[in-house]
UniProtKB/TrEMBL annotation:
Source domain of life: Bacteria
Gene3D superfamilies found in the cross-reference section: 6.10.250.3100, Methyltransferase, zinc-binding domain (6.20.50.110), NAD(P)-binding Rossmann-like Domain (3.40.50.720), Vaccinia Virus protein VP39 (3.40.50.150)
Domain Methyltransferase putative zinc binding, first and last residues per copy: 12-72
C-methyltransferase domain segment(s): 255-409
Organism, scientific name: Paramagnetospirillum marisnigri
Matches recorded under InterPro entries: Methyltransf_Zn-bd_dom_put, Methyltransf_Zn-bd_dom_put_sf, MeTrfase_14, SAM-dependent_MTases_sf
Protein name (record): Methyltransferase
């Protein structure tokens, strides 16, 4: 494994302010998608994982930045391995085609297309589909027949996209925007690529839900920003964009999410009541108040203590415990808990890029879903807890008699 490089910034990545306060420290951790071969453990690196609040614009963010080029060079996350996420994105695509009456042949983009999960949801042959993907996952989308530009998106790339493909009628970036350090360049690039009546749909884990429901595991080095409408409205105004509609969804790539509809400042899309309503709600909630986040930190510590007590109780009763699914956020949780293979004997996963490796930091073996079934381990910590209902209803593990420990927002055993 190649070494990761890291740098520290001391200004807000949206407004440039230095009025920043640390609100949560999840300890030093490895990058959460850096699944590691057993022979490479000695060279593993850890970096600070601390969330800071900008008291001027309200953006929550990481200031220790692991190089995106290093993270995405050998990337182990493939979106399409999640059946629930495929279903979720199918709903997004179907609704967007209907709402915005996309004409046949329209240019449609997906920034951060990964293995083509979103592009594959569109009717075959109807639109001119373009994926942008800097990571190694883009090879899977190209193999599936999609046009993929292998580059990081920003204001420098946008003119080349306009020249090559034309302006985009609809562009999506789901579970991507929070990964970006130069977030202003990204937004300016979208503004430059959009058609006059084009729409940008962003979906991201919602900061307020993360804090209120204690979903702290969505904090990891890839996620540089923890987003809400208030700071984004500030950003959009800087680059001649505006949000005109917002929806909440309970099922996103990393948990409950906001789906934000954005257009050029001069576009014909009318702003509906959801935008001012959410801005008021965030102000009333205290989006810029450090006390909100310090309370969050206390609740995070309480969840840690409760989960460790649950695991210790099962171990004392002679039960083995595994973990089910190996998402990046699961590694934030495992490392913050401080557990290892003596506590969690294995993590099951259906992504071949992870199977046979160890989880970063905690060094728990990653095995196949079938291997977990064969081992007949009675309890499994459900690291993809945001799909708990789906897995309880559909997984062979539960049908075989296994029980999930759902860790968040507070530990509970299901079924």
């Amino acid at each position: 494994m190649a070494a990761f490089s890291v740098r520290h910034r001391d200004t807000c990545r949206i407004c440039g302010s230095r009025n920043l306060v640390e609100v949560l420290d999840l300890t030093d951790q490895p990058p959460s998608n850096s699944f590691i071969a057993p022979e490479a453990v000695a060279a593993e690196q850890r970096f600070p994982l601390k969330m800071h609040l900008c008291r001027d614009c309200g953006l929550s963010q990481l200031l220790d930045i692991v190089s995106a080029e290093d993270i995405f060079d050998d990337y182990a996350y493939l979106s399409s391995t999640s059946r629930a996420l495929c279903t979720h994105y199918q709903g997004l695509v179907d609704a967007a085609i209907e709402r915005f009456k996309l004409p046949d042949g329209a240019v449609v983009g997906d920034i951060g297309c990964n293995d083509g999960i979103m592009l594959a949801r569109y009717p075959a042959g109807r639109f001119s589909l373009v994926g942008i993907e800097p990571s190694s996952a883009g090879a899977y989308a190209r193999k599936a027949g999609f046009t993929v530009v292998e580059d990081f998106f920003g204001r420098d790339l946008a003119p080349r996209l306009v020249e090559r493909f034309g302006r985009v009628k609809l562009v999506t970036s789901t579970n991507v925007f929070a990964h970006v350090d130069d977030i202003e360049s990204f937004a300016a690039g979208v503004q430059a690529w959009l058609a006059e009546d084009g729409v940008w749909i962003i979906e991201f884990p919602y900061l307020v839900d993360m804090v209120e429901r204690c979903y702290f595991d969505t904090i990891y080095h890839e996620h540089l920003c923890y987003l809400a409408l208030t700071p984004l409205a500030h950003l959009f105004a800087k680059v001649s964009l505006r949000a005109f509609r917002v929806e909440k969804t309970e099922v996103g790539a990393s948990g409950p999410a906001l789906r934000l509809f954005v257009c050029r400042a001069d576009a014909p899309h009318a702003e509906d009541s959801s935008i001012p309503a959410l801005l008021r709600a965030e102000a009333d909630w205290g989006i810029k108040d450090p006390a909100r986040y310090h309370d969050f930190a206390k609740r995070v510590e309480a969840v840690k203590e409760s989960l460790l007590a649950t695991l210790a109780d099962l171990k004392a009763k002679g039960h083995q415990v595994a973990a089910f699914c190996a998402p990046a956020k699961g590694n934030t949780l495992l490392n913050y808990l401080g557990v290892g293979p003596d506590d969690i004997v294995a993590v099951s996963e259906n992504n071949d890029l992870k199977i046979g490796k160890l989880t970063p930091g905690s060094h728990i073996p990653v095995i196949s879903d079938q291997a977990l079934l064969d081992a007949k381990i009675p309890y499994a910590l459900l690291l993809a807890w945001n799909y708990a209902d789906f897995f309880v209803a559909n997984s062979d593990y539960v049908k075989q008699g296994g029980r999930f420990i759902v860790p968040l927002p507070e530990p509970v055993v299901r079924p």
